[in-house]
Design a protein that fits this description.
- The chain has 15 helices and 47 strands.
- With about 800 residues, the chain is α+β, with helices and mostly antiparallel strands.
- Helix content is about 20%, strand content about 30%.
- The strands form 14 sheets. It has a five-stranded antiparallel beta sheet with strand order 29-34-31-32-30. Strands 35-36-37-39-38 form a five-stranded antiparallel beta sheet, sandwiched between helices.
- It is globular, with a radius of gyration of 32 Å.
- Helix 9 (about 595-615) runs antiparallel to helix 11 (about 680-695), helix 9 (about 595-615) packs antiparallel against helix 14 and helix 11 runs antiparallel to helix 13 (about 735-755).
- Strand 25 and strand 26 (about 310) form a beta hairpin.
- The protein has six domains: about 20-150, Agglutinin, subunit A (Orthogonal Prism); about 155-285, no CATH class; about 290-430, no CATH class; about 445-480; about 480-575, Phosphorylase Kinase, domain 1 (2-Layer Sandwich); about 575-815, Transferase(Phosphotransferase) domain 1 (Transferase(Phosphotransferase), domain 1).
């Protein structure tokens, strides 16, 4: 009896040991996982199975640490579609060739591996690093995965997991926090790699940029303190195939992870403490107030050692709205103290040390340049505002240059990078400019003469300014019989409630536009020249002179102007439906524009351009036609606006050449953007872009077809060439036969307008005729700017005679190299 008992106990122990030692780390097509079974990785480090989080009664398939007593889930398969009972089963589907989760209660598929490639002998395996992979057992290369969970992270970044892009497939591996401890569904807090020319990871709160780490500097992200973390660090990779970051554990015996926490809106680095049997917070981001995105506005930096924490870049900048700064609202940022513009032969740079580099959305990068070459490149372009090394190792190398206002940078005590900010010679003074040695020994006579010359210049400038004011105020003969009403500043201030932010309609390259109501009840739109605007009195006068002489139902009506002291204002008729881009690029508002309204807008813009090119007293080339410059009245009739950059041509003149290229990237014709040659055909090109935008509902600027590396024009051309042009059509547009016919015709006309060679493009009179008839159209040739606009600045650097466009989304200005 005793022998029998001993044998029985031994058998049970052997069976138990065999069961433990043969725990599955993979299942084949004939096996499954249900509520009471699981997969365990080879070294018992991770486990996969069904679970219910927190107090929830829903069931999910997830992966958690096997060896850690505190159940810590690192990945969830069906986070969007939970199972409301314990009937879930993970099994193979012979129909799709994928493993899927099936809810037996209602027989529905709630999740699948979703691989497009089929395996001859499929297996689903849980690896030691926590990666769940689908592979073919017959494939000799065991790392050739058909699908892997690391490509679809949830709220946790594990060592070996990539946060970033697979550029070949267009896969964006991004993290999203759990909604709550009881609900693993994606929350508002996300973290992803932004594909700028100078890539950087960014955290988002919904659609609002929340935090950024700064770009990679060869050692770490520039927003991190210099002191390296001894246990957890980053690595970064950027090549033609991938752009991503990883976390690396320095000690292989340490267990660590990084998570997004929706509860406190932090990104947390956690290390497992074997002593405390719990997770220890190792680092958190944001670390302090200065990590808040763009807290100090443009050209303002944040430093915890300051009180208040926001400051302007000293010496050269000042707060835009001093009252707001004193009250703790720094969002309007800073402007340059000097009124004169930089971009002179003797411009220089002010060096700022120990900074997290600014937002890299608008940058250009060359990793092979020296810092000296980077300085020269920045000086050669008037839109460049700052530069820095991309790699701080070995004394520094690589070049990144910024355009426009510098956003979201902070001071990092004992760390950060050097940033060189462009300033004019007058701002540098004698400290940083390249002054000749002889200037040190300047005679008193020369100093006195210089002072007299400056005094004479100032007096002459003041006299000219007064003369200009008197000409506009008095309405003398130099106004060329404009017969344009003049408004006084108090009247406009009263009409706009002293230019209240509540009345602000928007802001363009000229400056802000305000809604107002005159004493007689008329509603007006007041465009106010901004001091920091790239446009000035010349553009204002240009717009007054041109538009006052133009009268057409599809051109916005100018009611008057005002010049008082430093104020420059234009008064227009009020357009209640704002601009075209307000509708067509918004998924919800786009539905308000059916095809009949869109076609009416297209025809109206065409008639307005035809009037400018052919039927007006002056032959006008607009040079800045775009969706935001097409306003809509109460009946959705289009009116072309903003003539500050327009050019008039005399007689039969239809083209010209300029050293000052102006317009908006994404709408500019190739010959104009690259060579400065403009003509009526430049406007035709812009109209073609606008037409394709109206049809597709996609914005030309920033459009990027990941798979084919195409711009909006290139994508339209590809679809046309492959006989699939209707795939370009906005989903908001109906599909009746008449609509389809008109959409096809408009796409055809749009492609004719954006052809590479100006002589191939039709005139606006031909366009109007083509829109109004059903006659046969010629076949379009290769368009201009077919390739991706993902890094637009590189296209312009291809020409040594041309400078980069500014990053102002409203209007850009390019100057010929000196």
């Amino acid at each position: 009896m005793e022998n029998f008992s001993f044998m029985l106990i031994t058998s049970l122990l052997l069976c138990s040991f065999t069961e433990i030692s043969t725990a599955l780390d993979a299942i084949s097509q004939s096996q499954s996982i249900s509520d009471n079974t699981s997969l365990v990785s080879k070294d018992d480090f991770f486990e996969l199975g069904f679970f219910s989080p927190g107090n929830s009664k829903n069931t999910y398939l997830g992966i958690w640490y096997k060896k850690i007593p505190v159940k810590t889930v690192v990945w969830v398969a069906n986070r969007i579609k939970p199972i409301n009972d314990s009937s879930g089963v993970l099994s193979f589907s012979a129909t799709t060739g994928n493993f899927q989760i099936l809810s037996h209660q209602n027989k529905t598929v709630v999740w699948s591996t979703n691989s497009t490639r089929r395996a001859q002998n499929p297996a689903l395996q849980l690896l030691n690093n926590g990666n769940l992979v689908l592979r073919d057992d017959l494939d000799e290369n065991k790392n050739n995965y058909l699908w892997q969970s690391f490509d679809y992270p949830c709220d946790t970044l594990l060592p070996g997991m990539k946060l970033g892009w697979d550029l070949k497939t267009g896969l964006n591996r991004r993290l999203s926090a759990w909604k709550s401890p009881d609900d693993p569904a994606p929350g508002n807090l996300t973290w992803e790699m932004m594909l700028h020319a100078y890539p950087e990871p960014v955290m988002w709160n919904g659609t609002r940029e929340f935090l950024r780490s700064g770009p990679w500097n060869g050692i770490q992200y520039s927003g991190k303190p210099t002191k390296a973390l001894p246990l957890l660090k980053y690595s970064f990779m950027s090549n033609e195939n991938e752009v991503y970051l990883e976390i690396v554990l320095v000690n292989e015996f340490v267990i660590g992870r990084m998570i997004l926490n929706q509860t406190n809106f932090h990104r947390q680095s956690l290390i497992w403490s074997e002593k405390d049997k719990n997770w220890t917070l190792y680092a958190a981001f944001p670390r302090d107030q200065c990590d808040t995105y763009n807290l100090c506005g443009g050209n303002g930096y944040c430093s915890l050692s300051n009180s208040p924490v926001c400051r302007c870049l000293d010496k050269h900048f000042r707060p835009k709205l001093l009252g707001n700064w004193r009250s703790g609202n720094w969002s309007h940022g800073c402007e340059r103290k000097r009124a004169e513009k930089y971009c002179q032969n003797n411009d220089g740079f002010a060096k700022y040390e120990g900074l997290k580099l600014p937002d890299t959305t608008h940058t250009w990068v060359d990793n092979n340049m020296t810092l000296k070459e980077c300085r020269t490149k920045c000086l050669s372009n008037c839109s460049c505002t700052a530069y820095a090394n991309t790699d701080v190792r070995d004394g520094g190398k690589g070049c990144a240059i910024w355009f426009g206002d510098l956003l979201d940078f902070k001071q990092i005590p004992g760390g950060g990078q050097d940033l060189y900010v462009r300033v004019s010679a007058s701002e540098l003074g004698g400290k940083g400019g390249k002054w000749k040695i002889g200037v040190v020994i300047v005679s008193a006579v020369v100093v006195i003469l210089a002072m007299l010359l400056v005094y004479y210049f100032c007096c002459n400038k003041r006299r000219n300014f007064q003369d200009n004011n008197e000409k506009l105020d008095k309405g003398d003969e130099d106004q060329e019989d404009l017969e344009l009403p003049l408004f006084d500043l108090p009247t406009l201030a009263a009409a706009t409630d002293n230019f209240s932010l509540d009345n602000k309609l928007g802001e363009g390259g000229f400056g802000p536009v305000y809604r107002g109501r005159l004493i007689d009840g008329r509603e007006i739109a007041v465009k106010r020249l901004s001091r920091s605007s790239g446009q000035g009195l010349k553009e204002l006068k240009n717009e007054v002179i041109l538009i006052a002489k133009l009268q057409h139902r599809n051109l916005v009506r100018l009611l008057g102007c005002c010049i008082a002291g430093e104020e420059r204002l234009l008064i227009y008729e009020f357009m209640p439906n704002k601009s075209l881009d307000f509708f067509i690029f918004d998924e919800t508002r786009g539905k308000l524009l059916d095809w009949s309204k869109r076609f009416n807008i297209i025809c109206g813009i065409a008639r307005g351009l035809l009037y400018l090119h052919q039927d007006s007293r002056l032959r006008i080339i607009h040079r800045d036609l775009k969706a935001s410059n097409v306003l809509l009245d109460s009946e959705m009739n289009p009116k072309i606006s903003d003539f500050g950059l327009a050019r008039s041509c005399g007689g039969d003149e239809t083209e010209g050449n300029t050293r000052r290229v102006v317009g908006t990237y994404g709408y500019m014709a190739p010959e104009y953007a690259i060579e400065g040659q403009f003509s009526v055909k430049s406007d035709v090109f812009s109209f073609g872009i606008l037409l394709l935008e109206i049809v597709s509902g996609k914005r030309s600027k920033g459009f990027y077809h990941m798979k084919h590396n195409l711009s909006l024009i290139g994508n339209a051309w590809r679809m046309w060439s492959e006989g699939r042009p209707l795939e370009l059509m906005d989903e908001c547009i109906g599909n009746d036969s008449r609509t389809v016919s008109e959409v096809l015709r408009c796409i055809h006309i749009g492609l004719l307008c954006v052809q590479q060679r100006p002589e191939d493009r039709p005139t606006m009179s031909s366009v109007v005729q083509m829109l109004g008839s059903e006659s046969a159209l010629p076949e379009p040739a290769q368009p201009g700017f077919v390739t991706s606009e993902k890094n637009p600045h590189n296209q312009y650097f291809a020409s040594s005679a041309q400078e980069l466009p500014s990053v102002n989304e409203v209007t850009i200005t390019l100057l010929q190299a000196r």
